[in-house]
Amino acid sequence: MKPFVHLHLHTAYSLLDGACRIDPLMDEVANLGMPAVAMTDHGVMYGSVEFYKAAKAKGIKPIIGCESYITPGDMHDRDPKVPRNHLVLLATNTAGYKNLSHLTSKAHLEGFYYKPRIDKELLAAHSEGLIGLSACLHGEVTAHLVEGNMTAATESANQYADILGKDNFFLEVMDHGIAEQRQANKLMHELSRKTGLPIVATNDVHYL
Fold first, then answer.
1. CA angle, 113 as apex, 72 and 116 as ends, to 5°?
2. Which helix (H) or strand (E) holds 26?
3. Where exactly are the structural domains of the chain?
4. Looking at domain 66-201, does it have CATH number 2.60.120.260?
5. pLDDT of res. 3
6. What is the DSSP letter of 63?
7. H or E element: which one contains 187?
8. Alpha-carbon radius of gyration of the chain
9. What are the tens digits of pLDDT across the range 97-126?
10. How many CA atoms lie within 13 A of 50 on its CB side?
11. pTM strictly above 0.85
12. Which of 37, 58, 143, 157 is most exposed by smallest CB count within 10 Å?
């Protein structure tokens, strides 16, 4: 049996949202025998250095990431009606870390409107070394599936696969006992068969 690794996890650096303090997190990951763990805080990378050092000290592989806010339009637009979808991005190497840092900085300096936002054009220009996950109910693909719109979900999934590379975009399934999630999960398997995109199980961790 392959070990389970959390790829969608919020530390206390997801301010007013995540409750996982980094040292206790690493203790728990080690106790559970998990070889690696990801940090995907909402729109920020504040905890990256602390997370990396704490993981290394425990012999755990740190996966640096971010649950980015991405707008379907231009991130410079200030239209309150435009959604801020979620997209999990994970760095696979040094180039990916640099690109993720660049995206996060641009999101704050140029795309900030209530939240630090990027857009698909910026993502496409800085996608090297990044893996994308479709995120939670606020992810673009998942939101379409909750609405029962397979056509729009397929279009969105294929667009992210084109930007990141087909081997670098994964469809997330998670189950927190929410009816909409279970509905999306059923359709996510259909979407996977339709697009050929792989599925990954996550848990959208916010507390230990």
1. 75
2. helix 22-31
3. 66-201
4. no
5. 85
6. E
7. helix 179-195
8. 16
9. 999 999 999 999 999 999 999 999 999 999
10. 12
11. yes
12. 58
